[in-house]
Recover the amino acids of this structure.
């Protein structure tokens, strides 16, 4: 039977209301809930703001007690009430930063996990966050403001619902006998879809004890439980096909624009060679031809991480880009630890390892590590502003973790998952020095094409400790010279070379960040001398 559009929507609504239970209820290629879906953008032009939804803003207290997470705002491990309606109410705050895309933590129903990374029901939107209706409204409101939405998704594991009968959690290569358990709860919570209630779909080896043992049989990295979470046998066709159907359906039901994929490092590459093309193909079929897939592969080796992008690792097209963990290492070393900034040049030499490094997501704060400001001295804000200057001018898509623009300084999770509106007051201050600095950087990036798409050319770098680093972002029609000082004192860089055609001798270059500082290109050569104050940042454009 062929359903007309309105009839199909009604059927989908009925299924959602009555409760989906099986992936067999999901069409292989689901029809979208609206006749025209929002087109995805050119991601090279975007700027991402990453939000842990539960810790952002409580827009609807009525849903705080729903679901399986205990609402306990004083408990750092409890749910704190942030939801989709809270995101809607703060969209103008996010837009004011200059962000054009919002990445939110997982939205599927979780079991005792405020953060979203322990799904128990892959067929339902978390009721504590507001459910499907509020999620759709959030996406629509973001689109109405010219912004896009990225959902965090997980295929590697589900919630911790399985226990080993021998009571141990350490990795055992031969596996162990398992059963379902519920940690003292009276209700019997089983995973959905029902297909995931088959213990044979899980590895059942115990917790990961080797985090980088690729090539081993079995590979503990890929077959162990991530911090106790039940690890799927993603090598099985039925698991792969279920995850394709689930996440195609999520796109069809929400109109989102991209997925950030959690724990990609812990899933076998053959899975990605099937799943990524299937998601891309479906998204394109409903008008989202640039649906964005980027993965989390926590490793410092560019070759390892880059092999997950495009066809770099062979086979079918995988992720568009990755969270740039190798560059995160360099961020930390240069801006926090005082390593010579020339390390950036060394890192950029590995850009060729990626399908397109312009599609890598750059960051230096996230929910899994202490924030940049954690443990910093009195110069912490100045160092942070220099790091932000690089984040928004380097090659790649900049991503700001919520609260960084308000000076948050939390340590290991959950302390780096602070409430934007909590016991210490409201932290949605658009006049905050860091908020205004980020907004200025985003505005400049939006107005200057070289900062979004230009080639990266290293120009000058201190190689013996903290100091000046300068690089150009170059398109065929413009060169922008970026310079920053990682030292706590004024430093000078001399004879910094430029592109003669774009920055000819005698040209005047003016700092576009508002310092009113100008430099003149040498009358005989295409080069300049630069003097920067402690932790200063300059972005020079030709007058």
């Amino acid at each position: 039977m062929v359903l007309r559009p309105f009839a199909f929507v009604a059927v989908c609504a009925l299924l959602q209301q009555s409760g989906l239970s099986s992936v067999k209820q999901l069409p292989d290629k689901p029809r979208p809930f609206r006749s025209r879906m929002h087109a995805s953008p050119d991601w090279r032009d975007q700027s991402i703001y990453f939000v842990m939804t539960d810790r952002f803003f409580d827009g609807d207290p009525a849903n705080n007690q729903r679901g399986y997470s205990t609402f306990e705002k004083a408990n750092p491990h409890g749910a704190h009430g942030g939801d989709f309606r809270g995101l809607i109410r703060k969209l103008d705050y996010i837009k004011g930063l200059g962000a054009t895309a919002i990445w939110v933590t997982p939205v599927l129903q979780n079991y005792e996990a405020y953060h979203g990374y322990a799904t128990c029901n892959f067929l339902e939107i978390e009721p504590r966050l507001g459910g499907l209706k509020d999620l759709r409204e959030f996406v629509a409101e973001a689109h109405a403001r010219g912004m896009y939405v990225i959902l965090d998704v997980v295929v590697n594991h589900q919630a911790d619902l399985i226990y080993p009968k021998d009571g141990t959690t350490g990795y055992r290569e031969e596996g162990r006998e398992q059963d379902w358990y519920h940690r003292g709860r009276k209700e019997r919570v089983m995973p959905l879809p029902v297909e995931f209630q088959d213990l044979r779909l899980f590895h059942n080896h115990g917790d990961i004890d080797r985090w980088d043992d690729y090539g081993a049989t079995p590979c503990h990295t890929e077959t162990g439980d991530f911090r106790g979470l039940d690890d799927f046998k993603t090598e099985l066709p039925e698991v792969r096909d279920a995850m394709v159907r689930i996440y195609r359906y999520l796109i069809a039901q929400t109109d989102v624009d991209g997925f950030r994929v959690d724990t990609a490092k812990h899933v076998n590459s053959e899975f990605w060679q099937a799943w990524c093309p299937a998601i891309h193909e479906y998204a394109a079929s409903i008008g989202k031809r640039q649906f964005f897939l980027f993965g989390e592969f926590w490793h410092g080796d560019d070759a390892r991480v880059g092999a997950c992008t495009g066809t770099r690792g062979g086979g079918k097209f995988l992720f568009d880009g990755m969270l740039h963990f190798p560059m995160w290492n360099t961020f930390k070393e240069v801006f926090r630890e005082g390593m010579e900034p020339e390390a950036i040049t060394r890192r950029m030499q590995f850009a060729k390892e990626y399908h397109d490094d312009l599609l890598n997501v750059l960051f230096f704060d996230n929910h899994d590590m202490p924030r940049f400001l954690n443990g910093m001295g009195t110069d912490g804000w100045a160092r942070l502003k220099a790091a932000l200057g690089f984040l928004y001018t380097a090659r790649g898509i900049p991503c700001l973790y919520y609260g960084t623009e308000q000076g948050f300084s939390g340590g290991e999770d959950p302390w780096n998952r602070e409430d934007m509106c909590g016991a210490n007051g409201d932290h949605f201050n658009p006049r905050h020095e860091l908020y205004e600095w980020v907004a200025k950087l985003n505005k400049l990036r939006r107005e200057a094409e070289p900062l979004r798409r230009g080639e990266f050319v290293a120009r000058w770098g201190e190689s013996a400790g903290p100091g000046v680093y300068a690089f150009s972002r170059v398109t065929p029609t413009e060169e922008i010279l970026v310079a920053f000082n990682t030292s706590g004192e004024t430093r000078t860089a001399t004879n910094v070379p430029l592109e003669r055609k774009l920055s000819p001798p005698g040209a005047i270059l003016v700092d576009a960040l508002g310092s009113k500082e100008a430099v003149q290109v040498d009358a005989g050569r295409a080069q300049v001398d630069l003097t920067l104050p402690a932790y200063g940042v300059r972005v020079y454009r030709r007058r």
